[in-house]
Each structure stands twice: as structure tokens, then as C-alpha cells.
Amino acid sequence: MGHLNLPSSKRNVKQWRLLDIVTAVFFGAVFLFFLLVFTPLGDSLAASGRRTLLKSSGSDSKHRGRLVALVEFGRQAAAIDACPADMVDHMPCEDPRLNSQLSREMNYYRERHCPRPEETPLCLVPPPDGYRIPVHWPESLQKIWHDNMPYSKIAERKGHQGWMKKEGPYFIFPGGGTMFPDGAVPYIEKLKQYIPIAGGVLRTALDMGCGVASFDFHFLGFSFDLVHCSRCLIPFTAYNASYYLEVDRLLRPGGYLVISGPPVQWPKQDKEWADLQAVARALCYELIVVDGNTAIWKKPNGDSCLPNQNEFGLDLCEESDDPSVAWYFKLKKCVSRMSSAKGEYAVGTIPKWPERSTKAPSRASMMKNGIDVFEG
Fold first, then answer.
1. Confidence of residue 372 (pLDDT cuts 50, 70, 90)
2. Which InterPro entries does this UniProt record tie to the protein (predicted)?
3. Distance CA 234, CA 232 (A)
4. What value does the mean pLDDT take over residues 261-279?
5. What is the Cα–Cα distance from 197 to 217, expressed in whole angstroms?
6. Residue among 133, 97, 128, 127 at smallest CA distance from 115
7. How far is 117 from 127, CA to CA, in rounded Å?
8. Do the Cβ atoms of 295 and 262 come closer than 8 Å?
9. Which of 10, 80, 268, 326 has a Cα at 20 to 30 A from 41?
10. Non-local CB neighbours of 212 within 8 Å, separated by 6+ positions
């Protein structure tokens, strides 16, 4: 029998080529799916995409403002995405990368520096790995979960001072510190010998903490009955006593200033201690006591002491100065006038606690219907 030779069909060749392309695209899509879902590359691309998306959400400032307002008022139904995992320590106003580029003058770079709204990702900062429901109050006064703040450097460096120690799964706070190793209670009892802590006379107190920042407190003038520093290491007399003047702005007339630790009778800090006393005298602060390394002063009730001859060139602020204007201003180089505050602010002239909690303060009268709002 002879063989029948049939011409090859061009149509079948085209069909096979099309099938090959479809098959290749399908398997390529499957491969890409597994690559993105089950490999670190997918996580990285997703995180990068989320960052771009979250930042782009702020490109329209009006839209972002409306979204933020809805979230704050609890009216936003749409879920807000979580930030990428590497943003677990994200603090918008405490970004070391930004702060390291700022001026060192007066430790300005250690202040809070918040980015513009359009530069801030709108997302929820994720908790650290192993995060647990916090220890309930009042037990949390003495301990917290280590995994909720998994950084042990402070405990390792300061554990011997009793500030903070790692014990099993917890950080514990035994009490104590450099200036009161036996705990805060004996230290407070010592202060009670010189300050009317009990009885409701003193209620509002500001502890200045460690002096590693620029020491710029955004509080209303004459807000505190007592200002306290325990080894805060703040150079109060530097920059023409600018730091001391800020304390004076915050402290009520007749209020108390307590400084424990350097430079109060501290080795090799005789000049700093002498300068601190000189500033206090120039502002007419009464030295109540020097007990070991603790000094206590009482602020005067009026401006009559100034202007006073002093080596720091201190003088009263202008009559127009408002001691309660503190946001976005540099530290003042002048002494806030107590007469500029409307109403009664001096310690001893305002109601004692707890009566103070039910009586409208003088500042309430400065706003429209303030007294009615307070009493309502």
C-alpha cells in the first residue's frame, strides 16, 4: 500500500502555540503566587506597598484630616491597616534618624520633633512579639511583662540602684534610686519635715526627671505647688539661668523647689552649687534647708524683689508677656511677672485638697462661661 502524505495544518500549529502561551502564563501566575505568599520577598514587597499606601493617604490633607477626625470620634467604620512589623518601636515625634540631624544647642535635638501630617503614616503600630494583656492595677505598680517592653538595657545598668530589675517574665520596680536607695517612702518622710506635704496644701507637683532633653515644659504658668528634681542633672544656671527661669515660670507663688543630688553639696561641684544658690538669691527664693544633698527653696509671693543686681543679668519680663504661652517658644531669658497672672494662684490662697477639686479655679473665669462650665 502506498502512504498518503497529508500537508501539515497551519491551523493546528497556531492552536498549539496559543495553548503553550496560556499554559506558561498560568504556571507563571501560580509560581508568582507562591513566591509572594510563602517567601520573605512577598512580605517585603507587601510592607513596602503598605508604606507607600499609608503615606499616600496623607497626600490629600483634607481627606486625611476628615479620616483622622472620624477615627478620633469613633465614627470610622473602615479598618485602619497595621503598620509594617519593623515599625514596632515607631514614635513619630521621637525619630532618632531625624533628631540626629538637628542642632545640639541646649540639647535641642533631644526634644520632641513631630513630622508634618502628610509625612506620618496613618496606621496602627503593631505590638512586639509575645505581647500580653498588661498586668492589672494596682499590681502593675510593682511589675510589668518583660515581653511588652523587651529591652533590658535600663535594668542591666540601673538594677543595682533599685529602679528596675528583670525577674522571670517581669520587669519589677523595687523602689529606690540613686538619691533614695531605701525607697521613696523614707525620702518623702524626710521632705515632710520641711514641706507641708500633708493636709491638702500641696497638690500639684512636677518631677523633672532626667535632664537629657532641652527642658522645655509646655504647661501654663504658675501651675505647680512643688517642683522636684532628684539627680535630674539639669544645669539650672546655664545660658543665663534659663532653666531655672523655666522652673520659676511653672511654680506657683509661695511654691517649693526641691533639688536632690548634684550640685547640692556635691564633690567637685562647688562652683555649680554656688551658682545655683546665687540664682535663687537673685530671685529672692528663701532657702528652707540643706539636708545632705537635698536643698529646698520657697518661692516669694510677689515681684517686689526684682529688678535685683545679680551676675546673671536677670530682669522681669515685659508687662505684655504671658507666662502661660509656652508652645513653640524658646526658653525665656526673663523672669515671669506674677502680677501678669489674673486671679489667685499662690500656695495658701487657693483652697486645700479636696475642696480644690470642686471649686472653680481662677483660670476658669478667663474663658467665656468658664465658671458655669466647671460647675456644670
1. low
2. Put_SAM_MeTrfase, SAM-dependent_MTases_sf
3. 5
4. 94
5. 23
6. 97
7. 23
8. no
9. 80
10. 107, 110, 233
Q: Describe the strand order of the beta sheet including 165-167 as a list of residue ranges.
A: 143-145, 170-172, 165-167
- 28 vs 10: which has the higher pLDDT: 28
3-state secondary structure labels for all residues of the chain: CCCCCCCCCHHHHHHHHHHHHHHHHHHHHHHHHHHHHHCHHHHHHHHHHHHHHHHHCCCCHHHHHHHHHHHHCCCCCCCCCECCHHHCCCCCCCCHHHHCCCCCHHHHHHCCCCCCHHHCCCCECCCCCCCCCCCCCCHHHCEEEHHHCCCCHHHHHHHHHCCCEEECCEEECCCCCCCCCCCHHHHHHHHHCCCCCCCCCCCCEEECCCCCCCCCCCCCCCCEEEEEEECCCCCCCHHHHHHHHHHHHHEEEEEEEEEECCCCCCCCCHHHHHHHHHHHHHCCCEEEEEECCEEEEECCCCCCCCCCCCCCCCCECCCCCCCCCCCCCCCCCCECCHHHCCCCCCCCCCCCCCHHHHCCCHHHHHCCCHHHHHHC
Q: 265: left (phi > 0), else alpha (psi -120 to 50), else beta?
A: left
Instruction: Name, in order, each residue with C-beta under 8 angstroms of 272's C-beta and a sequence gap of 6 or more.
Output: 235, 237, 262, 263, 266
- Say how many C-beta atoms besides its own lie within 10 A of residue 342's C-beta: 10
What domains are defined for the chain? 43-119 (no CATH), 130-175 (no CATH), 191-375 (3.40.50)
Q: Residue 368 is placed in which grid cell?
A: 467665656
Per-residue pLDDT tens for 183-211?
778 888 999 999 998 888 898 999 887 65
Over the stretch 206-253, which tens digit does the pLDDT of each residue have? 988 765 444 666 788 898 999 999 888 888 999 889 999 999 999 999
Distance between CA atoms of residues 333 and 313, nearest Å: 9
Instruction: Find out whether 278 and 310 touch, Cβ atoms under 8 Å.
Output: yes
| Tens digits of residue pLDDT in 37-66 | 555 555 555 445 444 444 444 445 555 666
